[in-house]
Amino acid sequence: MAGRTLAGLIFGCLLYGIVAILIGLIFVPKKLLFTAGVILGVIAASLFLVNMYDSIDASLEMNEKKAKGFTFGRKTVRLIIALLVMVVTIILDTYMFAGAAIGLFTIKFSALTHPLIDKLIDKILSWEE
Known about the structure:
This protein is mainly alpha-helical. The protein has five helices and no strands.
C-alpha cells in the first residue's frame, strides 16, 4: 500500500511537471531554460518523496528519540538540497529559477490531489483487465 502511494505521488509530480512545461511552452520566452528548471525541480521533488518514504520506513524501527533526530536530519538535507537547486538556478537564469520552483512545488500539488490521482490510476488499471 505504501509503495502504491509513493508511486502515485511520483506520478502526480510527473503529471504536474508536464502540465507546467506545456504551459511554459506557450507563455515563457526562454522555453529551454524554463523546461530545464521544471525538469530539475520535478526530479528533485521525486527524489525527496523517495527520501521521505525511506526515512519514515527507517524511523519506524527506531525508538522515539532516535527517530526524531533521524527524520530531522533527513528533512534538513532535503531543505538544503532544495535551497541549492534554487540558488544555482537563480544564478543561471530567472526563468530557470521559476521553472525549478514550480517543479519543486509539484510535490505539494501531487500531495493535495493524491486522492484524485489514485482514482485515476484505479480507472486506468481497471481498463487493462
